[in-house]
Amino acid sequence: MYAVIKTGGKQYKVTTGQKLKIEQIPADIGQEIILDCVLMIKSEERVIIGQPTVYGASVKTTILNHGKHDKVKIFKIRRRKHYQKHQGHRQRYTEIFIKDINFNDSI
């Protein structure tokens, strides 16, 4: 069984017991959060696709830690204009553990 969730403007395919790095969520480490924007659920016998989300579906997660990804270096140059710009960026993330995928099976 797996689900497709949307968080932070991105979509992720998740299964129970999976660790995942998503866009930063303002919550404490060890806190349980429920992601309710579930776009699709695939169980053993059928596929449920939401319009746009699956009604009554949720994914229960636990926050493991917060951090920053590796630095991305940005270099801009205009040829023959004597213009160079150096810049760097480190995106923040939240690592979560997928505990359970819940949905109403009577639908």
TrEMBL record:
One of its GO terms (cellular component) is ribosome. This is Large ribosomal subunit protein bL21. The keyword RNA-binding applies. InterPro entries: bL21-like, bL21-like_sf, Ribosomal_bL21, Ribosomal_bL21_CS. One of its GO terms (molecular function) is rRNA binding. Part of the 50S ribosomal subunit. Contacts protein L20. The gene is rplU. PANTHER family: 50S RIBOSOMAL PROTEIN L21, LARGE RIBOSOMAL SUBUNIT PROTEIN BL21M. Pfam families: Ribosomal_L21p (PF00829). Keywords: Ribonucleoprotein, Ribosomal protein, RNA-binding, rRNA-binding. This protein binds to 23S rRNA in the presence of protein L20. Belongs to the bacterial ribosomal protein bL21 family. GO terms for biological process: translation. It comes from Candidatus Kinetoplastidibacterium blastocrithidiae TCC012E.
